[in-house]
Write a structure and sequence with these properties.
Blueprint: H1 21-24, H2 37-49, E1 55-59, H3 66-78, H4 92-99, E2 105-109, H5 116-125, E3 136-141, H6 148-159, E4 165-171, H7 179-182, E5 186-189, H8 195-209, E6 212-213, H9 215-225, H10 229-242, E7 246-247, H11 249-255, H12 261-273, H13 276-289, H14 293-311, H15 323-333, H16 338-357, H17 361-373, H18 381-385, H19 395-402, H20 418-423, H21 463-467, H22 469-481, H23 483-489, E8 493-496, E9 500-505, H24 510-517, H25 519-533, E10 538-543, H26 562-565, H27 568-577
Parallel strand pairs: 1-4, 1-5, 2-3, 3-4, 6-7, 9-10
Antiparallel strand pairs: 8-9
Helix pairs in contact: 3-4, 5-6, 8-9, 9-10, 12-13, 12-15, 12-17, 13-17, 14-15, 14-16, 16-17, 22-23, 22-25
Length: 597
């Protein structure tokens, strides 16, 4: 029988001494700190001028160098070689600080020192000076994890520390740090490191570690790190281990959970073209590959943001994309306006919270993308206001709108003469009801309503109205500015004699007459006539002949007081509903003899 394996305490195989790349390539001086030039300049100037503050606060996302900068700053303060703007990393103090064994440089995880009793013990021990180094440095990592009472116990010591004591606080959630601590510290914000800088750093590591990797694969790792150098280096270490010293692009895409720019390019093209079948197929690909829907959606959101910036005409070099990727993305979005991409990005951003919280993430992702594919079918409000017809709209939208009830037709012109009176037997102010099987299609609100065609026995329409292009342009302009007034005037005769536009309305037509007496309508007609027919053109209203012989004339309405007719509230009601003042009636709770309110 084979002998059983026996583990001896204190012994380890030689292959277990491997040090991960994130620790091995941790910066040891300010020159190797990546992507934080402002912080490096401020700290080196403080060292050069001897303006060392009693407390510093380093904030930023994970893996951007907060704790590393604190160690380098502690080494620079205590390095045996002066001036120590660049720590030597060779003296015993620098080596012990790097190893975490220096007695005067304390690195404390605030999560384990969250209780107020622990902080009070720490504060009591810090009242004594350094044992060997020039400065005693206390690095409190993730300081936002301290309790409120623990922060209060530190206030006095942070504000007035003993000589040669420096606090360095590091946090990823600066909003959780009390303002009383912030006001006692010099704050430095560590920004996200750019993808190009991270890719260059990864390329340096691969060259020194004899790893084989393409530039595109390193850029994928830099993009997946989302500004964190440590995360990108850890992903490189993982892929190098998986590929036996070789970083494969396909394996990188599979490991990174769907960070496939080729898939994103196809998806963006399908969404902008309104192809739901292609979008659904790509969503199924994401589900079959087992990629995290939240991560895929976040990466696609970033890709669409790059597309939006390209459509705005921004410089492609700031997007941190390769030349081929920028060219392909610019060609994809070149034929689409900026508004379409902005609407798409807004929809994807609104769907992000739903995808993140949903238990069925793949389904939520597919629905969000399918809804995005419906956005190109929407009609812009500007097109509707401009009077876009059914031919200019999407077929689905046209089919939907055709099922709605037809818009009310304007009042048809009253025929004059006995023959017309016998052919059309209807009240003077009521429109002709169309048959159910001949219901006309709905017209857009912004178009001038088309008058009902007169019966066969009715006289032909006015030649000026039928052939006068200027009159037609007048109605088009009026329908854009005030559709209700255009619908009222479409029911009467309008003609232009070369100098003046004449609006002929039948006698007793109080609807049109009241609309033409309104001050706002008269001002609008002056502007429209001047813009269509020229600066010197005018208009006038002409009342037609009385009712034809044999017709019973309508008794005249009692006169309306001028003050009541011009009252702002009355004018507003008439303007909204397109009505007129037919007469005066007393209120229900008032006697007939009182003047109506």
């Amino acid at each position: 029988m084979p002998e059983p394996f026996v583990a001896v305490a204190g012994s380890a195989p030689s292959d277990m001494t491997y040090q991960v790349l994130a620790r091995k390539w941790r910066p040891q001086d300010f020159s190797s700190l990546i992507g934080q030039p402002a912080v490096v300049t401020a700290l080196t100037n403080a060292l050069r001028e001897g303006r060392v503050a009693q407390a510093y606060l380093f904030s930023g996302i994970r893996g951007v160098g907060k704790t590393t900068a604190a160690r380098v700053f502690a080494k620079a303060l205590n390095c045996e070689r002066e001036p120590a703007l660049r720590p030597c990393s060779d003296c015993p103090i620098c080596r012990q600080i790097a190893e975490g064994s220096d007695l005067d440089v304390l690195e404390i995880d605030a999560a384990t020192y969250s209780k107020v009793e622990q902080v009070r013990e720490l504060a009591e021990s810090l009242r004594y000076g350094p044992a060997r180094d020039r400065y005693k440095v206390v690095v409190l990592d993730e300081v936002h994890r301290l309790s409120r009472q623990a922060f209060d116990a530190l206030l006095k010591l942070v504000e007035e520390p003993p000589p040669q004591l420096v606090f360095i606080f590091a946090t990823t959630e600066i909003d959780a740090v009390p303002a009383t601590i912030l006001s006692r510290c010099q704050e430095f914000h560590f920004r996200r490191v750019g993808r190009r800088e991270v890719a260059d750093h990864l390329e340096t590591i691969c060259r020194e570690e004899k790893l084989e990797a393409s530039r595109h694969a390193l850029e994928l790792l830099a993009r997946a790190g989302e500004g964190s150098v440590r995360d990108s280096v850890a992903l490189l270490d993982q892929l190098a281990t998986f590929g036996n010293g070789r970083v494969d692009e396909e394996e990188a895409k599979r490991l990174l959970g769907g960070l496939d720019l080729a898939l994103f390019d196809r998806l963006l093209g399908a969404i902008l073209a309104g192809e739901p079948a292609e979008v659904a197929a790509l969503a199924r690909t994401v589900e079959q590959e087992g990629w995290d829907p939240r991560q895929v959606h976040a990466h696609f959101l970033s890709y669409c943001r790059d597309a939006l910036h390209l459509s705005l005409g921004g410089a492609g070099d700031v997007l941190e994309l390769s030349e081929d990727e920028r060219a392909a993305l610019a060609a994809r979005v070149g034929a689409h306006p900026y508004e379409d991409l902005l609407r798409l990005l807004h929809h994807l951003l609104a769907s992000e919270a739903t995808i993140r919280r949903s238990d069925a993430g793949a389904l939520a992702l597919e629905l969000a993308w399918l809804r995005a594919a419906e956005l190109p079918k929407l009609v812009r409000i500007e097109a509707l206001l401009a009077g876009a017809g059914g031919d200019e709209l999407d077929p689905a939208v046209t089919a939907t709108s055709s099922t709605r009830p037809p818009a009310p037709r304007p009042v048809a012109p009253r025929p004059a003469g006995k023959s017309a009176a016998m052919a059309v037997e209807e009240p003077p102010t009521r429109p002709v009801a169309a048959a159910p099987d001949a219901a006309p299609e709905a017209t857009p609100l912004t178009q001038a309503p088309t008058p009902v065609e007169p019966p066969a026995s009715a006289p032909e329409p006015s030649p000026a109205r039928a052939a006068g292009g200027s009159v037609e342009r007048f109605f088009e302009e009026l329908s854009l500015r005030r559709p209700t007034l255009a619908g009222q005037l479409a029911a009467v005769e309008c003609r232009y004699d070369g100098e003046r536009l004449e609006i002929v309305h039948p006698a007793g037509d109080s609807l049109v007459a009241s609309a033409l007496r309104r001050a706002s309508n008269r001002t609008l007609l002056d502007d429209v006539v001047a813009s269509v027919f020229g600066a010197g053109a005018r208009w006038r209203a002409i009342e037609g002949a009385a009712a034809a012989a044999g017709e019973t004339p309508t008794p005249p309405e009692p006169p309306v007081p001028q003050a009541l007719a011009e009252h702002p509230r009355v004018q507003a009601v008439l303007e909204i509903f397109g009505g007129s003042i037919a007469g005066l009636e007393p209120a229900a709770d008032e006697p007939t003899g009182r003047e109506p309110r």
